[in-house]
Amino acid sequence: MGKENVKKAGTIFWYTPFILVNMVIGASSVLTTLVALSLGASVADIGLMTSAGAAATIVFSTVWGRLSDISGVRKNYLVFLFAALGPLFILLGFTDSVLQLVVLNTVIMTFISGVTPIAVMYVVESCKTKDWHEEVARYNSITNVGAILGLIVSTMVSAFFRTSLSFYLMSAFCIIAAISLWKIGEETKITLERQVFPIRNFRDAERFLIHRSFFHYLRLRRVQFPRRLSQFKPLQLLFLACFMHWLGIFSFMIGQVPIMKDLNLSDSVILAINAVTGTSAALAFSKIAPAIKTDYKKLIRSMTALRTALILYWSMFPLLFIYQLQYVFVFPLLSSIVFPITYAIVWLPIVTSAISFAPHDRKGATQGELLSILAIANTIGSAIGGYLISVFGYTIGFVVAAIITLLSTPIFSKIDMP
Predict the structure, then answer these.
(1) Contacts of 222 (CB under 8 A, 6+ apart)
(2) CB under 8 Å to 88, separation ≥6 — which residues?
(3) How much is the pLDDT for 325?
């Protein structure tokens, strides 16, 4: 295949760097949780680790997206982020305490948080498509393939070797992704009216990064909170609904791997179940979600109800501690097939609506802000879920998570999605 075909935006070869880096992103959260549990971490410790990583994402997903917007650069930021993750995952393989794992995972999330907001806009702009819905769906589908491959590789490693050895492979994937993007990718033109930030020398950069300029850059003083839902703008309502929805989801998800470990499932089986989750998500993003053209408000309401029911389904798993079954892995496996389908159906209209609602010069930053909202929900939800499960058990923790998730329904109902 010719060099021009390899570099052509939208081809499978062009997507190679994103597949590689998502092999890392897709497997890292499960791997760090399993390694933490092997080091003696409690569910509350897992909640703390996840909250710390999410807190880093809150700040840096917006920062990376905004820096990309105002500098007019996408590719170079992605190459930097991919390359920076390489040595960090090597260090992660050497950790021998929960505290070290928490610190390193937080640093890693600082860099991972910039990948998705910049990559989504890089793909949309590079492919020069007017159908954002279709291109975002394609991006999610292809990168989910990477997540599946990463989980399959980790499953094989954990079946024969120590689970933490997978971190060294993750490091190699990041370095290869950086090199391949540097070789294959091309910087996009400023097609979505981005404003290039005029940094011409070191002194300009220094002034840009001082304390006062940094907070002005985040525009914290301009934040205003409407008193009633009717006063919210569509993008604000979308962010609020996403926060409530994923607050419940993350409160629930913090207990998934620990309860599977308590059911005596091996690391390789847990990773394999997560690989099935990734496979289901990839099929959902590529085939199911794009084909659905119904009223998005009704669709999200139905999917929220289904996701709530699935969380309540997990709340009954503690019964399996009493009534032990030979093929207990079937129960989480069934949920791993259905749950990601509901995620794809909900997430796709959310992302495309966020792009549509955003100002022309802040579309990349808006993707980062959306992830920041989810990160805030992850920070709070993981802490809540970890605490409730540690104190009251899995059943109470999951039931509370289900109730919180359901409370997002009336907020979504007030948004007129394009």
Answers:
(1) none
(2) 104, 107, 108, 111, 171
(3) 80
- The CA-based angle 184-186-191, given to 5 degrees, is 150
Spatial distance between the Cα atoms of 250 and 243, rounded to a whole number of angstroms: 10
Q: How far apart are the C-alpha atoms of 264 and 35, rounded to whole Å? A: 15
pLDDT tens, position by position, 311-362: 999 999 999 888 878 888 999 999 989 998 998 888 888 877 787 777 766 6
CB neighbour list of residue 360: distance below 8 Å, 6 or more residues apart: 192, 193
Q: Which residue has the tokens 């999605």?
A: 417
166-175 pLDDT, tens digit each: 899 999 999 9
Give the C-alpha separation, 389 to 109, whole Å. 24
| Distance, CA of 399 to CA of 393 (rounded, Å) | 10
Q: How many CA atoms are closer than 13 Å to the CA of 370, on its beta-carbon side?
A: 26
Q: If you write DSSP's letter for every residue of 374-407 in order, what string do you get?
A: HHHHHHHHHHHHHHHHHHH-HHHHHHHHHHHHHT
Q: CA 348 to CA 132: how far, in whole Å? A: 10
Among the listed residues 89, 96, 98, the one whose alpha carbon sits nearest the alpha carbon of residue 150: 89
Domains of the chain: residue spans and CATH:
3-190+203-218+226-412 (1.20.1250.20)
Residue numbers of the chain with a pLDDT score lower than 50: 1-6, 10, 191-225
* Residue of 271, 234, 296 lying closest to 147 (CA atoms): 271
